[in-house]
Write a structure and sequence with these properties.
The chain is mainly α and 445 residues long. It is 84% helix and 0% strand. It is globular, with a radius of gyration of 21 Å. The protein starts with a helix and ends in a 5-residue tail after the last helix.
Length: 445
């Protein structure tokens, strides 16, 4: 089953066959994010834009819960495929499915119960609060569907069904795009409409994933009788999954802290940063897609002890990611003003957004290095170094850099904090790759 997918043909062709499906799915997500942002910006209501922007960490937090079992499970499944251990494949996928649902339900209930303090904590002042609270409420209700969407989209890729994973993501995003203008403008639901459209898109992704598991998959299962899993496997899922989730959790915290730092400079700065972060995702998600697209191959070759193909894969991916990130960053730097004019009419906001955007993308090649190291350690079950990198770029390193640079340079220090954090985190990634991966894994070839 897996041999036909992972071992047939040159390694770079297998990589692109796997990765391009992931990237295509993420490209559609980018289109959704920009379309969603565009419709919200067309309200010309700065407080509404800021309200939706301050809620971005909530989505990232729910993504984190999904990635505990989506990425943690897919890492283990890739290695089990390499060993052809079908029974444990069924158990791992069933465990991830049902526990993810439980996490989503509990998260949603807690979020609803603590709505007012959490929305204020996110950075909403009295003017922004009504819009943020509306968006937040519907996102909390849809929490189980959001968390669940990251399970089968990841597990299907681990089995080699990247096309179906892409379709599930694309279908949900297209539905979202169609519903946005209807709910935001036609039904005059504003921020609530944007959130409802997003949740309905994730419901589509969940339903499609279940259909594929029932009728197409040979390795995945949602059999409740297969939920029980041995402690070693659970430890591996959580070990890798939590390190992956911490990337999202720390990213949420960093967004909140950044919004609080920007609050002193006005809600318009928060609104601009919210849009800038989504535009910069064009570069970021393409790099993420090509990184994660190779993760099942890394796990499979490592599990099957095919060290030659593992080495060939990693050398190719490193060169490709470096070239891709440099090229996309340059394009974004050159056309930053044009990109911002799509969302703003006032020249001062376009100029401010262009400055922020350039500051966000100039070090994307360094982010690629950090991602490269993170994916390698996650896919091979090296949870400690994966955890270290997960807590660096948008974690401990970023928080320290943010407060130090904000104190010294004020507003400019805030917007350039990510670039400095990328530099420090890339250095950490290179040291870990050299000292752990190169010596421990590639030396076995």
């Amino acid at each position: 089953m897996s041999e036909n997918v992972f071992e047939k043909g040159p390694v770079y062709k297998v990589y692109f066959k796997m990765a391009i499906q992931v990237v295509m799915g993420l490209v559609i997500s980018i289109v959704y994010n920009l379309t969603d942002t565009y419709f919200i910006s067309q309200t010309n209501n700065t407080n509404l834009i800021a309200g939706v922007s301050v809620c971005a960490p909530i989505f990232t937090l729910l993504m984190a819960f999904g990635n505990i079992f989506g990425q943690g499970g897919s890492s283990l499944i890739s290695r089990l495929l390499g060993k052809n251990d079908i029974d444990n494949l069924h158990r791992v996928s069933s465990f991830c499915f049902y526990v993810a649902i439980a996490f989503g339900v509990v998260s949603g209930l807690i979020m609803l119960a603590l709505k007012t303090p959490i929305v204020h904590l996110l950075g909403a002042d009295d003017e922004v609060f009504p819009y943020a609270a509306s968006y937040y409420t519907w996102f909390s209700i849809g929490a189980p569907f959001v968390v669940l969407s990251f399970i089968h989209s990841n597990l299907m890729r681990a089995e080699g069904m990247s096309t179906h994973s892409m379709i599930s993501t694309v279908g949900g995003s297209v539905l979202n795009i169609i519903l946005d203008p209807i709910l935001i403008f036609k039904l005059n639901l504003g921020a609530s409409g944007a959130a409802i459209a997003t949740v309905l898109g994730y419901i589509f992704t969940d339903i499609y994933g279940l259909i594929i598991v029932f009728y197409k998959s040979k390795a995945l299962s949602v059999n409740p009788n297969k939920v029980r899993l041995d402690s070693e496997s659970i430890g591996q899922i959580f070990g890798i999954g939590i390190s992956a989730a911490l990337t999202n959790i720390t990213s949420s915290i960093c967004m909140i802290l950044t919004n609080h730092q920007l609050l002193d400079f006005g809600n318009d700065k928060i609104a601009i940063m919210g849009i800038v972060q989504k535009v910069s995702m064009i570069v970021m998600l393409v790099i993420v897609g090509f990184s994660f697209g190779g993760a099942p191959l890394v796990g499979y070759y490592y599990g099957s002890q095919n060290q030659k193909r593992l080495r060939d894969l990693l050398l190719f991916v490193l060169k490709f990611l470096g070239s891709l990130s440099v090229g996309m960053s340059l394009i974004m730097v050159i056309f930053a003003s044009q990109a911002m004019s799509f969302f703003f009419e006032e020249e001062i906001m376009i100029a401010e957004g262009a400055l922020m955007l350039r500051a966000q993308v100039i070090t994307m090649v360094l982010m690629a290095v950090v991602l490269f190291g993170t994916i390698i350690f996650q896919a091979t079950g090296k949870s400690i170094p994966a955890l270290v990198l997960s807590l660096s770029r948008q974690g401990v390193v970023y928080v320290i850099v943010l407060f130090v640079m904000a104190k010294i340079l004020g507003y400019n220090g805030i917007i350039y904090s990510q670039a400095v954090s990328d530099l420090i985190s890339a250095i950490i990634a290179v040291v870990l790759l050299k000292n752990i991966f190169a010596k421990e894994l590639l030396s076995k070839a």
